[in-house]
Amino acid sequence: MISASHLDLSYGERTILKDFSATFTAGSITAIVGANGTGKSTLLAALAGDLAPSRGDVTVNDQPIASLNRTQLSQLRSVVQQSHSYWMAYTTEEILRLAHGDISEARFDYLVEKLAITPYLQQRVTTLSGGQSQRIEIARALMRELPIIFLDEPFASQDLKSIDAIIELLQAERAAGRTIVLVAHARSEDLAWCDQIINLNAR
């Protein structure tokens, strides 16, 4: 379980989010929604341990996330950023296998099939579209089957078929016991498949 207690999040002198508290149950999907500038991505970074709050605490299974070093964090959660650009001309398969030498071939094949990555496995990543690159990052995040997954705008630049495939995949990961927190620009009625929706506009 992830718990955020009375968080204040700031960049410099600017307060982005104030007095935020929430609980994220293990084996659940939570969507964070809200208008631009309400602090969705900032909150995700704080929950993932990548941004220290100016006030308040984030705990995972009652352990302060601030007490974990980078190695411990990397063994606990994966983070999918909102956008990713590649500057070295690796193939898609090379990127997916990078630092994932211990994964099973069954897991690799499952993810590339579910996310429709197979057709461009041998394509240079520098030539891919934004949506294709995002699906690579989702696959990379899920490759090691870590207990917690954070995704910032996983549906950006995706067509409807790809969105459906990502939703189906996240639901399967939830069924496997993983805790998923994502940022989305979507109406609440389109997120009925989530267990919890946190609307930062309402704060």
Short key terms for the protein model shown above:
alpha/beta; 6 helices; 4-stranded antiparallel sheet; 9 strands; 5-stranded parallel sheet; 203 residues
Please explain how this structure is put together.
With 203 residues, this protein is of the alpha/beta class. Helix content is 29%, strand content 26%. It contains 6 helices and 9 strands. The protein has helices at 40-47, 70-74, 92-97, 105-114, 130-142, 160-175, and strands at 2-11, 14-24, 29-33, 55-60, 63-64, 77-80, 148-152, 179-183, 196-199. A 5-stranded parallel sheet has the order 6-7-8-3-9, sandwiched between helices. The chain has a 4-stranded antiparallel sheet with strand order 2-1-4-5, with helices on one face. A hairpin with a 2-residue loop joins strand 4 (55-60) and strand 5 (63-64). The chain is globular, with a radius of gyration of 17 Å. The chain starts with a strand and ends with a strand. The model has no long low-confidence stretch (mean pLDDT 93).
Low-confidence stretches: none
Biggest sheet layout: 5 strands, parallel
The outline comes out as: globular
| Proportion of residues in helical segments | 25-40%
H and E order: EEEHEEHEHHHEHEE
Our count of helices gives: 6
Strand count: 9
Q: Termini separation (Å)?
A: 23 Å
SS content category: alpha/beta
Assembly state (oligomeric): single chain
Strand order of the largest sheet: 6-7-8-3-9
* Global Rg: 17 Å
Approximately how much beta-strand content do the residues carry?
Answer: 25-35%
Q: Average pLDDT across residues?
A: 93
